[in-house]
Design brief:
Order of helices and strands of chain B: EEEHEEHEHHHEHEHEEHH
CATH class of chain A: Mainly Alpha
Pfam families (chain A): BPD_transp_1 (PF00528)
Largest sheet of chain B: 6 strands, mixed
Number of domains of chain B: 1
CATH topology of chain B: Rossmann fold
Helix content of chain B: 25-40%
Shape of chain B: globular
Oligomer: heterodimer
Keywords (chain A): Amino-acid transport, Cell membrane, Membrane, Transmembrane, Transmembrane helix, Transport
Number of strands of chain B: 10
Bound molecules: adenosine-5'-triphosphate, magnesium ion
Number of domains of chain A: 1
Order of helices and strands of chain A: HHHHHHHH
Number of strands of chain A: 0
Subcellular location (chain A): Cell inner membrane; Cell membrane
GO cellular component, one term (chain A): ATP-binding cassette (ABC) transporter complex
Number of helices of chain A: 8
CATH architecture of chain A: Orthogonal Bundle
Strand content of chain A: under 5%
Strand content of chain B: 25-35%
Distance between the termini of chain A: 49 Å
Structural class of chain B: alpha/beta
CATH topology of chain A: MetI-like fold
Number of helices of chain B: 9
Radius of gyration of chain B: 18 Å
Main location (chain A): membrane
Helix content of chain A: over 70%
CATH superfamily of chain B: P-loop containing nucleotide triphosphate hydrolases
Shape of chain A: flat
Structural class of chain A: mainly alpha
CATH class of chain B: Alpha Beta
CATH architecture of chain B: 3-Layer(aba) Sandwich
């Protein structure tokens, strides 16, 4: 169907780009989720006025366009002489960006756990920590997972912006090939297919968990 | 013994308990009746320290519930409570609902916990539902599970908060029978209830709450047969 000059080597080039995309996404989502869990618990358990500074900072990460955050962070670390590589800078910025969204998901999911359920746990003599780990987290996980999957897939796509720091991730790799081969349609189709192949297992895994949990209701 | 002395409790500007005095002896069954919003549920949640109080004190077996030095998690082991609203742990099976605190709070082994839980669940007629998730239970079954969960901890006291109010009439009987059995076994109980027949038949004393005050307390025969206060008379004439 397609008469293309895309070679196996070029596909390998794209796959290496996909590797960078996957690596940045994995770091960002892991770091962002750990921070998001921490901040989300703080947000839901501590009085709002104490957490005001945290809310403010997270709001910045959510409202300033990611591209600006990436470029500013990269420039600032250079000025400060940190000599952090663009890859690490990207991971850190994306992780903070992810954490800002993840915090809200975690907070919302925790607050969806009915108060009386938590009181039932405490009334049995469970500590705050036991209530959190045995009751709140498992219940909140069921509420928050779909949003978290959505966030992960979103971050994977947003991670394309790190090409502005000179990193050759999947989209940048595709761009380079488009420029060289002048076959935008086909190459972008391949790139899209690779993005899909990366996302599909994550989405399926989420759907699988949801289905298993629903069987219990 | 539960000693409640001059307890005042407010939610913001709303004073919900206006100086409650009540002593419940070991082995006694006290029913609490009264209109909606009179502070019945609030009193129960104060007794096991889920809610703070403003002034006064609540002493359970010599331990002041709201003293800063009190280990509430330890104290709560001997005060069971079953709430007005359904409160199953939905992600755990019926059996796991009961074994969780046995294992995590009392440190029992899985086998021991499951044995105790199965026995308690059998008691309340849920012996064939051990592996089922609470979402599959009827309202009456959920409440009986909550009762079994509280009883499995072998509490010295148990507080029931209108455990039948969220149930269809045909399910009320099965839960009340469970409570009756407990009372006959000598459990110390405070039962907030709208079931006047239950209060009359099962309790040693009946307390009538009215707008945050315990307006009257006495033997069931006296409260239902010859109430002294006009508020009590009016309340009883409305529920009958
Ligand atoms: N967490 C809370 N925050 C603010 N107000 C509350 C809270 N809990 C209860 N109240 C208020 O306190 C009052 C007493 O409530 P409580 O639940 O103790 O009444 P009750 O006697 O149990 O009523 P019912 O028979 O309807 O269950 C009510 O006016 C209620 O709105
Ligand atoms: Mg109530």
């Amino acid at each position: 169907m397609f008469d293309t000059s895309l070679t196996l080597n070029d596909v390998w080039f794209m796959l290496k780009g996909a590797g960078v995309t996957l690596a940045v996404t994995a770091f960002a989502v892991t770091g962002g989720t750990v921070l998001g869990l921490l901040f989300g618990v703080i947000r839901s358990q501590v009085r709002p006025w104490i957490t005001l500074p945290l809310i403010f900072v997270l709001d910045i990460f959510r409202s300033v366009p990611l591209l600006i955050q990436l470029i500013l962070a990269n420039a600032l670390q250079a000025i400060a002489g940190f000599q952090i590589s663009p890859f690490v800078t990207s991971c850190i910025v994306l992780a903070l960006y992810t954490s800002a969204y993840c915090t809200e998901i975690v907070r919302g999911a925790i607050e969806a756990v009915p108060k009386v359920t938590r009181r039932a746990a405490r009334s049995l003599g469970m500590t705050w920590g036991q209530d959190m780990t045995q009751i709140v987290f498992p219940m909140a996980l069921r509420v928050g997972l779909p949003s978290w999957i959505g966030l992960t897939l979103g971050v994977m796509k947003d991670s394309a912006l790190i090409l502005w720091l000179g990193l050759i991730e999947l989209l940048r790799a595709s761009q380079i090939l488009v420029t060289r081969l002048q076959e935008p349609m086909f190459i972008l189709l391949v790139a899209g297919a690779i993005y899909f192949a990366l996302s599909f297992p994550i989405a399926r895994f989420g759907a699988h968990l949801e289905r298993r949990w629903q069987e219990n209701d | 013994m539960i000693e409640i002395e001059n307890v005042h409790k407010s939610f913001g500007a709303l004073e919900v308990l206006k100086g409650i005095d009540l002593t419940v002896e070991k082995g006694e069954v006290v029913s609490v009746i009264g209109g909606s919003g009179s502070g019945k549920s609030t009193l129960l949640t104060c007794i096991n320290g889920l809610e703070p109080i403003n002034t006064g004190r609540i002493v359970v077996d010599g331990t002041e519930v709201h003293a800063a030095s009190t280990d509430l998690n330890r104290l709560r082991r001997k005060i069971g409570i079953v709430f007005q609203q359904f409160n199953a742990f939905p992600h755990l099976t019926v059996l796991e609902n009961v074994t969780l605190a046995l294992r995590k709070v009392l440190g029992k082994s899985r086998g021991e916990a499951e044995e105790i839980a199965a026995r308690q669940l059998g008691h309340v007629g849920l012996g064939d539902k051990l592996k089922v998730y609470p979402g599959r239970l009827s309202g009456g079954q959920q409440q009986r599970m909550a009762i079994a969960r509280a009883l499995a901890m072998s509490p010295d006291y148990i507080l029931f908060d209108e455990v039948t109010s969220a149930l269809d009439p045909q399910l009320v009987g099965e839960v009340l029978d469970t409570l009756k059995l407990l009372a006959e076994e000598g459990m110390t109980m405070i039962c907030v209830t709208h079931e006047m027949n239950f209060a009359r038949d099962v309790s040693h004393r009946v307390a009538f709450f009215h707008k945050g005050v315990m307006a009257e307390i006495g033997a069931p025969d006296q409260i239902f047969g010859a109430p002294e206060r006009p508020e009590t008379r009016e309340f009883l004439s409305n529920v009958r």
